[in-house]
Automatic annotation (TrEMBL):
Highest taxon in the source lineage: Bacteria
Pfam families, per the entry: Chorismate_bind
InterPro entries from the UniProt entry: ADC_synthase, Anth_synth_I-like, Chorismate_C
Organism: Nocardioides marinquilinus
Annotated spans, Disordered: 125-151
Domain Chorismate-utilising enzyme C-terminal: 155-416
Name of protein: Chorismate-utilising enzyme C-terminal domain-containing protein
Length: 426
């Protein structure tokens, strides 16, 4: 089998617009297959600026504004593919501010969405390996197995945390995902950084996207473990599935410590309450687009283990109604409830008021959508973003409830950045 990394090196060097959906760190539920694609000059890509409310179509070296809503424009492109008998497939990301009807600050740094329609696609099957089962018991640097931390929370995070607590106690929100961004220098070659990241942190929604286009430059380096939405056919229609993550603990340094951490995550009342609130939110979201009575929770609060952390993961599933297009369903679900909190709209207003910087692509979705109604996207977490200038941005955060502890929440946010920072240091 040809190593996809070798192919990607050549593709990235020759094609300004390309991507790699990396199946090397996949699980049984996500499939161990890589997809590598690239665009010729006359192929189409889309970029979106939430600040200008402009969707730009890039083709043949030209850029043309074609709409003001990326969901609508992408849906129209898929409709055109379907009408022409094609099986068009688009690959890209939706940033946190991709829905103009929701309170989210535009990203002044990178496009709020980028989508590519490649004419060249190669697929690679990955054999089973350590990344598919147990990535290894490696404690995160700077974290202890007890969830401790090495630095106190800074004043701005403490102030934001206190304000969120006021809203929680006032009943404005039941759980709020409080996040922040870090900018760090790194190697000028984003692919080199990504190759180190995938070795340090294999994940089901790992991938690399390059859109090296004037006025819309963006690189996304993802090692996300979380499914935003899968839409697939089962013979009787389309089924939509989402797998929210709420609850994170570090891996243990020994087998005994690791099992203790796993047990703590599975049984801690606070983690379980956080997860249940997001499951309820997603059941509500899916009920808007699914057949009555079809929404179910086949897995509630299962523990999944990754290279640096254990995660508490649930699965929520439903059957899409025939009158709901796939892009329309993704719009209703967007952004992921695990990245907002509950209730979604009011909580987004709360975090928008306290977070110091726009989320950008962080907390959005990354993956593919197809003209036949299928789609598969992960949540943009554990990811690096850059304009290709040697500066990288990462987002981190966690769910806050009335029972949350400032020091503990801060330590969890730092735990989630460990492997990203190590990839940059390499």
């Amino acid at each position: 089998m040809t190593d996809p990394a070798h192919v990607v090196r050549e593709v990235v060097a020759r094609h300004p617009r390309c991507f790699w959906l990396d199946g090397g760190g996949a699980r049984e539920w996500s499939g161990r297959r890589s997809i590598v694609g690239w665009l010729d000059d006359n192929d189409v890509s889309l970029s979106y600026s939430a600040a200008r409310r402009e969707v730009v179509r890039h083709v043949g070296g030209r850029a043309e504004v074609v709409g003001d809503d990326v969901f609508d424009v992408l849906g129209a492109e898929l409709d055109a593919d379907r009408a022409s008998g094609g099986r068009g497939q688009w690959f890209g990301y939706l940033g946190y501010a991709a829905r103009p009807d929701l309170p989210a600050a535009p990203d002044p740094w990178l496009p709020d969405a980028v989508w590519l329609r490649p004419s060249h696609v190669r697929r690679f099957d990955h054999p089973p390996g350590p990344a598919a089962s147990d990535p290894g018991r490696v404690p995160a640097a700077g974290a202890t197995t007890g969830g401790g931390h090495t630095t106190p929370p800074p004043a701005d995070y403490a102030a934001a945390f206190a304000t969120v607590q006021e809203h929680l106690h006032a009943g404005d929100t039941y759980e709020a995902n409080l996040t922040y961004r870090l900018d760090r220098p790194g190697p000028p070659d984003p692919l080199a950084v990504y190759l180190r990241l995938r070795a340090l942190s294999p994940a089901p929604y790992a991938g690399f996207l390059q859109h090296d286009v004037d006025g819309a430059r963006a690189w996304l380096l993802s090692s996300s473990p979380e499914r935003f939405a899968l839409v697939d056919h089962d013979g009787a229609g389309r089924v939509v599935e989402t797998k929210p993550i709420k609850g994170t603990t570090p891996r243990g340094a020994t087998a005994a410590d690791d099992e203790e951490q796993r047990h703590r995550l599975a049984t801690d009342p606070r983690y379980r309450a956080e997860n249940l609130m997001i499951v309820d939110l997603l059941r509500h979201d899916l009920a808007h687009v699914c057949e009555v009575g079809s929404v179910e929770v086949p897995a509630l609060m299962a523990v999944e283990s990754y290279a640096g952390v254990h995660q508490l993961v649930s699965t929520v599933r439903g059957r899409l109604r025939d009158d709901v297009a796939t892009l329309a369903a993704l719009r209703v679900l967007f952004p992921a409830g695990s990245m907002t909190g509950a209730p979604k709209l009011r909580t987004m207003q709360v975090v928008e008021a306290v977070e110091a910087t726009p989320r950008g692509a962080y907390a959005g979705a990354f993956g593919w959508v197809a003209a036949d109604g299928r789609a598969d996207l992960g949540v943009v977490i554990r990811s690096l973003l850059t304009r290709g200038d040697g500066v990288y941005r990462l987002g981190t955060g966690g769910g806050i409830t009335v029972h949350s502890d400032l020091d503990g929440e801060w330590a969890e946010t730092r735990l989630k950045t460990d492997r990203l920072l190590r990839a940059l240091a390499g």
